[in-house]
Structure formats: structure tokens, C-alpha cells
Amino acid sequence: MTTSRAARSLRSWSNVVHACDLQPSPYTDGPVVHVVLSRRPLETPLTDLRDAGYTVTATGLFPSELRACPDVGRFESCQHLLVRPPESDGESETLPLRSEETVK
Predict the structure, then answer these.
(1) Where are the alpha helices (DSSP H) in 25-84?
(2) pTM for this model (two decimals)
(3) Is the pLDDT reported for residue 77 higher than 60?
(4) For labelling alongside 46, which of 9, 12, 23, 56 has CA 20 to 30 A away?
(5) Residue 52 neighbours by CB under 8 Å, 6+ apart
(6) In sequence order, what DSSP letters do the residues of 53-92 get, joined into one string?
(7) Residue 104 lies in a domain
């Protein structure tokens, strides 16, 4: 499975210890990225993600709520969240966004 541009970009952030794409579900508005932030001092605040154009859709998730991520057990003591990529990055390489007309 290839990785979206958003997940690759987030992995380069200093306090992001993990980022992976999750399949869209009925509860998400398209592709989302599972992001794990360290709990060290000076961690990446959510405002940094928002300032970079990401939409934070869920915070404070428990690893047990993220069964779709195969690596989630490695990061039990970290902060888990879901983000939507910036509009310019919204198209995933593995899950192309489709308009309703295309889906018909």
C-alpha cells in the first residue's frame, strides 16, 4: 500500500512518531491520517497542525479505537489523533477522491 503525501509529510515533523493513512469510514469525511504525537515536552501542538492546513477530526483516541492501524500497539503512551489533509493535499494516492457524479 502506498502512502499519501500528507502521511509522508507528517512523518518528517520532529514530534510526530507515526503517521499512516486509514481507510475512509462512514464516520469520516474522506481519507484521514492517523497521527501519533510524542508526549515529550515541546511536543507539536494541535495549533501547528491546524496552521499547516490540516483539519483535526479526532483527538484523545485510545489505541483500542484504532484497530485499522497495524502499528497502534507500539504507541500506547502517546497522543493519538486523526487529521484530514490540507485541501491541496486531499487526494490520496491509494484512495482517490471521487465526486458523486463519478460514483453513479
Answers:
(1) 46-51
(2) 0.74
(3) yes
(4) 23
(5) 86
(6) TPEEEEEEE-GGG-TT-TTGGGGTTSEEEEEEPPGGG---
(7) no
